[in-house]
Structure formats: structure tokens, C-alpha cells
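Notes on consecutive records. When two proteins share a document, each keeps its own sequence and its own C-alpha cell line. Never mix them. Below: protein one.
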Amino acid sequence: MKKFFASVAATALLVGGASVAFADNHAEMSDKKNIVETASGNDNFSTLVTAVSEAGLVDALSAEGPFTVFAPTNDAFAALPDGTVETLLMDENIEQLQAILQLHVVSGKIKSKDIAEGTTEVETLGGETIEVVNDGHSITVGGAEVIMADVYTSNGVIHAIDSVILPE
């Protein structure tokens, strides 16, 4: 696990040809931006930020927390079937969008170093359970691979993932 996370500890990581960069990712400081502000400051999370806003979850993810957010990149949303994101953003589908987004949030601050090898089930804010698998080389969450870990915020931590976690 240390080898994997050492490889993603840099402040930029190439993701599907796009650089996911955060300023001063790995220092834990109380004056940092919250989860929503941090994601809003990175163009690779613009789809996620739009979805969080449309779902009415900005205040919840800006609250004290702490929270762990497994944040799909724009490329992760783009990999969904054509029209999926647009359909989820429609007013009549807000509850479904909220349910999907809540699958990506866990109460508490889970740092990469805290994830034991093997499979662990964690409860999401939506009340669903997802599997976190650490095989010693990589970590997956609900089947999505963590492509950048430990982006600390004032109210938790963000781990970028390569696909959108969907309900079963």
C-alpha cells in the first residue's frame, strides 16, 4: 500500500490525459477550504460540483463533518452511458441523484493509511454499505479505483476515484 500511495502523493496525477492537481494536498491545516470549496477549485471535478449543487447537498458537504468523499472525476462521469448525467440533473430525478452522490460520502475522516489490507464494508451517508478493498497495491471503493488519495480539507478528506459508484 505504501508504494501505491507514494506514487500518488504528488500534487498532480495524470488521469485519463487530464491532470488532477491540488495545492498543498497533504498538509493538514485547519484554515483550509472545505470539501465543496476544494472540489470547486479543481476543473476536473466540475461535473461533481454541478451535481452536488443541483442535488442541494452543498450545505451538507460544507458542514463541520468530518466527511470522507470518494470524488468521481469528470472523466468518471463522462464514462457513464450517454445522457445519464443530463437525466440525473433533471428536477424530477433529484432524489436519485442525491442517492448516488450519498454513496460517495462516508461520515468520518478516512485517510489512506487507515485502510487495512483486505475488504472492509463502510456505511455511506445514504445508509447504503459499500466495499473498500485494499489489495496491497491499490484501493477500490464500490468498484471504483482511488486514483488520488488524501486531499485534506477543513471538514474532511477527498479521494479522487475513476468511476461513479452506482446503487446495485
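Protein two starts on the next line and is unrelated to protein one.
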Amino acid sequence: MAGRIAFQGELGAYGHQACQQARPDMEPLPCPTFQDVIDACQSGAADLAMLAVENSTYGRVADVHSLLPRAGLHIVDESFVRVHVNLLGVRGAQLSDVTEAYGHVVILPQCAGFLRQHEIRGRVSSDNARAAREVAEAGDKTRGALASELAASIYGLDVLARHIEDQANNTTRFLVMSREPDRSRRGGGPMMTTFIFRVRNIPAALYKAMGGFATNGVNMTKLESYMVGGSFTATEFYADIEGHPEDPGVARALEELRFFTSHCQIMGVYPADELRRSQKA
């Protein structure tokens, strides 16, 4: 094994699947919370951290964006994981036996239509893989888990229904983070740059800060805001753009951005995931 990579959840979680997909040669390290994942990487218990940041159906994963600026880590890669939700049950159970299905609060809305159709009550669990483990331990045919096929194989469960997610393109984006930055061009394809910033307290500061990206032909794929420290007056912005900081257009846009901001920090420079590139095509 070439080091360890930490993820949130238990073995069999979608974060575990992301680790297998993005870093198959590394040993996965399960952690209870996102903060524990960050702590493991900071302390050296893990070499990399795998963090879920958004889902195409559910939206932004709560708390992650507020944790990233304080993490002291750097984004070195992204991984788009196609999330297939499956209904798992104990050996010998049938779909008709299941009256309750347990899953993370993020996963339940992704298969709400299926649960409603089959009159199955959704129950919140702290983690999908944990739900699978607890269903296996309970041995109750009326209880199911909403999890991956990887979790089914780990905990000895049957797949009662495959790919029950409501949206056919259900995808979660993960970020791979490291203690050391890597701003080299790599991967042979386009690069992405992620940064956070706070605008200065002047009229139209955000509009002016964003103008440099438009005039320099830089595509901004994400711009999100969130409050800092519970204050309604301190707002931080998180942005993803296509390109490398050394690209002339990107360099000019970032220079103009810094003129209108009180704080600007590049969080990472990394290759665009192949799924991002294929969707754009």
C-alpha cells in the first residue's frame, strides 16, 4: 500500500468507494466525522484526506466548505463518484419484507420516490455503511439499508433493489486533500483552481471582483457564499475556475480579484476529473 487516505464514514461508505476509485493503491482509513478526516491528515495518521463537498441531487454537503479554509490542507485532486443507491437487506429477505430503510440524511432525498412507491419509511442514520452494518447485526427482514454494493459485500447483505436513486445522473464530488500543495500541471488535461476570498467593504465590490474573470475569458464553474463566525456582515466566497494560476488570463483575473478583496487564498490546483470534462463535451 502506498500510504493511507482518510474518509468520512465506515468501510463500505461512498467515501470508501471514492478512495478506491481515486487512489486504489492506498489503504482507506475510516473516520467518524469530516473534522476527524482533516485531523487524521494534519497529524500524519493519513497521507491524504477524501472529503465529499457536493451532490448533484442534494447540493452542498453541510459544514464542509466552512471547514476547508481552516483545515490547513490543500486540494490536489477531485473525484466524481457516480452514486448508485441500493436497498440492502439481510440474507433471504425480499423487497416486500422491508418497511424501514436506514440511510444518511443526504442519501434519503436521493431515493425518496422509490421509498414512497414501495411504502418504505426512511430512517436517518449517521452513515450509510453504518446503516448496512447495523441491519446485518439486527438480522431483521423488515429493516433495510440504503448503501453501496461495496457495503453489501463487506457486511454480508443481499441487494434487494439496485440503483434506486431518483436521478439517473446522481453524482457526488469529492476533493482529495494533502498537507503539501501541488500546483504542477499534471494529468494531461485541463486544470482547475479553487480559492476563497472576502470582498472589501466598498460599493459593488463583488461585481468588480468578478469582472476580471469575464473580461479575461475565465470560466467560473462555482461561486458560493457562506457566513463567517456566525456574523451577517462577514461573508466568505468559495470559487472554482477552469485553468491554472499561471495561465495569462487566470493570472490577470486573480490579480484584479485581489484589488477588490481583503483576503484571497488559493485552496488548490488540480486536474479536472474526466467526468467533468465529458459532461462539458
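For the record: DSSP finds nine helices and 15 strands in the chain.
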